[in-house]
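Bumping with the actual sequence this time:
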Amino acid sequence: MTIRPKTPEAIEKMRVAGRTVAEILGRLRQMARPGVTTADMEAEAVRLMRERGARSLFIRQPHPRGGPAYPGQICVSVNEELVHGIPGPRRIVDGDIVTVDVGVEQDGWCGDAARTFAVGDVAPRVRDLLRTTEEALALVCREARAGVLWSAVAGQQEAFVRRAGFSVVTDYVGHGIGRKMWEDPKVPNYVSRELLRDDFLLVEGATLAVEPMVNLGKRQVREMPDGWTVVTADGLPSAHFEDTLVIRRDGAEPLTRLPEEPLGA
């Protein structure tokens, strides 16, 4: 598979969209406190999008299997919820972990990123889970450089997570990104026969949304009756970190992080 690189001009436009995503995530990190509802977080995200002339990539996204369209502007997933949590009246409590996924289109280009926040007194092993998941993303930034096959990077991610005693989710993967939220190729965080069959060479200027999803327990997940929220099958916590990255000769550069938010912090 061949990836089309973006022009320098396109990358700079994606950087603008990415900065909006990063600023929203930074504000929502501040909001992730006991008593705040997930709907409160969504409302603040929408306010910031409008202020910056951006629009949500998630609202009214079609369901992949013909169910209802996604009703939220962002995704907020708590504890055992992996992805696609719908904002609503749920109040955050001390000890929760809260995953926020934000995607915007701004001036015709997209940015997409996610963070998992620890709220208050979180169990040490759960904090290890968050740290390992973010470090798996940091590993990608070091190792994903022009001229390297993606399977080599994915294999390192998978091995790193397993050495820490956690499970890599295999039901959901990252993706190319640019003018559309989802572009080719699929970007898994693990090695499979499918990846080895459809492997791709990283090229300078390629833009990918890389998003390790890691479970405290087993890797299996299931979908809730709302048709969107995905939870771990064993009910144990899950973490999700994502950045929109541009491939360079010496590694991958995050476009969805502020200068004061170094990867792995």
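The tokens above came from a reply further down the thread. The first helix runs from residue 8 to 31.
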